[in-house]
Amino acid sequence: MTPQDHGPAVPLTRPRRLRPGSRVAVVAPSGPVPADRLEEGLAVLRDWGLEPVVGPHVRFAHPELDYLAGADRDRAADLQAAWCDPSVEAVLCARGGYGAHRMVDLVDWAAIRAAGPKAFVGYSDITVLHEAFALRAGFATLHGPMVATETFLKDAPTREHLRATLFEPETVRTLGLESAGAVVPGRARGLLYGGCVSLLAADLGTPGARTGARGGLLVIEDTGEEPYRLDGILTRLLRSGALDGVAGVACGSWQECGPYAKIRAVLADRLGPLGIPVVEELGFGHGTTALTIPLGVPAVLDAPLDGGRCTLTVEAPALR
């Protein structure tokens, strides 16, 4: 698989599904991890029959920049070591926060490619790494809940959807909560990519970043962005050409982003003129329920004209 330098082209290489007894690594590429939540999350993984191993620096915090889980080089080394360990079948992020942009260029992506695909799970700040795995390594990944976050620990549907995706991916090919609706109706097919929209905008102009979206189905969500800031984020993506050719947009949660009516108005104003289907509230991201969304696989976004249920259906299981 040749890494993709500019945007969606062909489906990415999918990792193998997990099985009872699979060894999985937990890493912290971004912010520091609360110890109690980490232990609770590890217990869930063990209940699933997995064997979790914790990266050497996951329990660290930067001595001066306390919003980071240790030094950049250490966080990058944990990710790379886990990926290149042949006994590890999946790499799960403990939490997001901030810091992935600082360490992504310290990872040896040639070594990652050589090690082959593995299930990789995270969202929020981890969007930066989803983009790197897609564009620098050619691997499909999972935009999903992280093991030391409140949503994973407190919401049973969130946990079960991730578990099913990892072990029985053919059972969760149609995605979307009952809350899903059409901002712009229509039907589109494309290659799934995206994540936290402010991180996608922050990636613009950086080494190996996307320069277009032809053939792509974009999934976006965010937290803590006021409507005017979301307007600016989407406007930057539009002006840069990063959304040129995008086939459709699937939106997740907009937690603490202001009154939803105003968020919806921004989405309609900025994305409506593209003339493509736009679906809202599919149920992934920072919300109370966070479905797992495969990235790098082909899917169909369906927003019926008659107001029926909106869905996102992957054309192949997320994992082989």
What descriptors fit this protein?
320 residues, alpha/beta, 8-stranded mixed beta sheet, 10 helices, 22% strand
Structure description:
Helix 8 packs across helix 9. The protein starts with 22 loop residues before the first strand and ends in a 6-residue tail after the last strand. The strands form 2 sheets. Strands 6-14-13-8-9-10-11-7 form an 8-stranded mixed sheet. A 6-stranded mixed sheet has the order 2-1-3-4-5-12, with helices on both faces. With 320 residues, the chain is α/β, with parallel strands linked by helices. The mean pLDDT is 96. It is built from 10 helices and 14 strands. The longest helix has 14 residues.
Number of strands: 14
Write down the overall geometry: globular
Biggest pleated-sheet summary: 8 strands, mixed
Q: Could you give the distance between the termini?
A: 16 Å
Order of helices and strands: EHEHEHHEHEHHEEEHEHEHEEEE
- What proportion of the residues is helical, as a percent range? 25-40%
Radius of gyration based on Cα positions:
18 Å
What is the typical, i.e. mean, pLDDT?
96
Proportion of strand residues: 15-25%
Going across the major beta sheet, what is the strand order?
6-14-13-8-9-10-11-7
Which structural class do you get from the secondary structure elements?
Answer: alpha/beta
Q: Supply the number of helical segments.
A: 10
- The low-confidence parts are none
